[in-house]
User: What shape does this take?
Amino acid sequence: MSTDAASHKHTNRLIHEKSPYLLQHAHNPVDWFPWGQEAFQKAARESKAVFLSIGYS
Assistant: This one.
């Protein structure tokens, strides 16, 4: 599986992760965040809930 972002229509921040599971979803059009403070800070700033995906492939 290529991780070359230039060859894909969509690339999200998961492209920088090491997990093979997260990398599977690095080219879908969802603005996914890996688990961490960045996601929670953005949700708080935008007064939005956090949507947690815990495993599908």
